[in-house]
Design goal:
Strand order of the largest sheet: 6-7-8-3-9-10
Distance between the termini: 28 Å
Number of helices: 9
CATH topology of the largest domain: Rossmann fold
Strand content: 25-35%
Low-confidence stretches: 243-247
Structural class: alpha/beta
CATH class of the largest domain: Alpha Beta
Order of helices and strands: EEEHEEHEHHHEHEHEEHH
CATH architecture of the largest domain: 3-Layer(aba) Sandwich
Oligomer: single chain
Number of domains: 2
Length: about 250
């Protein structure tokens, strides 16, 4: 059986009496792509922020590569990466400059070759003379995903990685993500509101509602459990009428 790259145990985050994440536990194994789904306010972003050590848990444990995140933050984050529509590179840099800065931050050897590879791989080579602030939202999203691969991460956190992209471009970007993560034998925690995308990429799906895990299973098993052929209908059912994991 493949190694566990991420283990979350009873993760809880409270803000002034409000519980944003409530006793969440799950694992992600090497080579696995797991989608984290839920309505707005379900706790997805807070969970990701805790996995990135941007927010401290109120209680619970996070183990990455079999080490506690709290005690090995710098070491573990150097082997991870992240992208989201709200996490953009500096607008006053060119795409090449932005990727080069992050390559330096991660201590990437042969950084020039790596940056060139990423620019070519994600269709950004023709944009190198533009400032990032001049790029379209879709181009900035592709650049953000390229940045996420600058250090060959073993654990990748992708928050809406195809937002702002038209369907053909989104499909192409998904294919590139899947290819690169398989080549690295890494794992992905993926969030999206595009259920067709989720079904296309996911080995497992974790549904959050009101800060709790309501379901954690393969797309096929979830369809059987809820008697639905459409993940969107399952999403709506869980968002409207939360159920327990044991139901």
């Amino acid at each position: 059986m493949s190694a566990i790259l991420l283990r979350v145990r009873n993760l809880t985050k409270k803000y002034n009496g409000f519980t944003a994440v409530d006793g969440v536990s799950f694992e992600i194994r090497e080579g696995e792509i797991v989608s984290l789904l839920g309505p707005n306010g379900a706790g997805k972003t807070t969970t990701i922020q805790m996995l990135l050590a941007l927010v401290s848990p109120t209680s619970g444990d996070i183990e990455i590569f079999e080490k506690n995140l709290k005690g090995h933050r710098e070491e573990l984050l150097s082997r991870m990466n992240f992208t989201a529509p709200y996490s953009l590179l500096p607008y006053n840099l060119t795409p090449k400059e932005g990727l080069t800065v992050f390559a330096f931050l991660y201590g990437v050897r042969n950084y020039k070759q790596k940056v060139k590879f990423l620019l070519d791989e994600f269709g950004l080579s023709e944009l190198v003379s533009k400032k990032i602030g001049q790029l379209s939202s879709g181009e900035q999203m592709r650049l953000g995903v390229a940045k996420a691969f600058v250090n060959n991460p073993k654990l990748l956190l992708l928050d809406e990685p195809t937002a702002s992209l038209d369907p053909p471009t989104a499909r192409e970007l998904r294919a590139k993500i899947l290819k690169l993560i398989r080549e690295s034998s890494g794992a992905v925690l993926w969030t999206s509101h595009n259920m067709r995308e989720v079904e296309a990429v996911s080995d497992r799906i974790i549904f959050l509602s009101r800060g709790q895990i309501m379901a954690d299973d393969t797309p096929r098993n979830l369809k059987k459990r809820f008697g639905q052929e459409d993940l969107e209908e399952i999403f709506i059912t869980i968002a409207k009428e939360p159920v327990s994991e044991s139901s």
